[in-house]
Write a structure and sequence with these properties.
Elements: E1 2-5, H1 7-11, H2 20-31, E2 37-43, H3 55-59, E3 70-75, H4 78-84, E4 92-98, H5 101-108, H6 112-129, E5 132-138, H7 151-164, E6 168-173, H8 180-193, E7 198-205, H9 210-220, E8 224-227, E9 244-245, H10 248-257, H11 266-279
Parallel strand pairs: 1-2, 1-8, 2-3, 3-4, 4-5, 5-6, 6-7
Antiparallel strand pairs: 7-9
Helix pairs in contact: 2-11, 7-8, 8-9, 9-10
Length: 281
Amino acid sequence: MKIIECPRDAMQGKDEFIDTAIKAAYINQLLNIGFDTVDFGSFVSPKAIPQMRDTAELLDLLDLFRSRSKLLAIIANTRGASDALHFEEIDYLGFPLSLSETFQQKNTNKSIAEALETVEDIQNLCETKGKELVIYLSMGFGNPYGEAYNGELVAEFVNKLNAIGIRTIALSDTIGAASPALISSVFQLNVETYPQIEFGAHFHSRPDKVEEKILAGIQGGCRRFDGAIQGHGGCPFATDELVGNVATEKVIEIIESQGFTLGLNMEEFHEAEKLAQFVFQ
């Protein structure tokens, strides 16, 4: 069972710029906890996401020698991928691919067809550099734009990504609309069909719906969950202001209640919780 902590997702929507030294102190604390991966930054246009303009600078301030956690950076095009691949410290690149044509245009200014071509180009770059490409399949459990959505569509996208050689796919409940039954069935179908692919869950949710979504993911065979301490960040397109990232502390509680051992240093986790109150004040 893997937990991916996402300070990048938590920070990127804040209007006020968080000082680079503060970001580094927070992420260094997260690196002490023992998460499988920390989604720490992104190589995208500073105009699109000003909060992430210091990602390269941030890398110089991270203490990776004592940490077992891997680093993930989000990219949205081949230029961003090329920039990220210059850094040996980064293990994973994450690319947002959407089942929704409308959302793909909003998110990366590309059509789905163009985005798939970009995915293939980036996958080739990653293979030459020994990195792994993680695809975040947004609108993975529903579509608010009136476009077609069903479980077969998800499987169709997964099949295309499998053909390209993608081995990690995070199914994303972008607007927090997924029902437990849908979550369980979508994961079960794809986990059973593509055992060579690691499927993760990037859920957005109202706080009172987190438990049922995590349990449904586990039931469907998901063993990789994203979270953000205290539930900071989330999707600006959600119509419910209570919908945001799932709180990592809640994810840990739910997963451990099901008998899984995560091996996290909870003393360090509680220190990170204290620091988060300062970072996100």
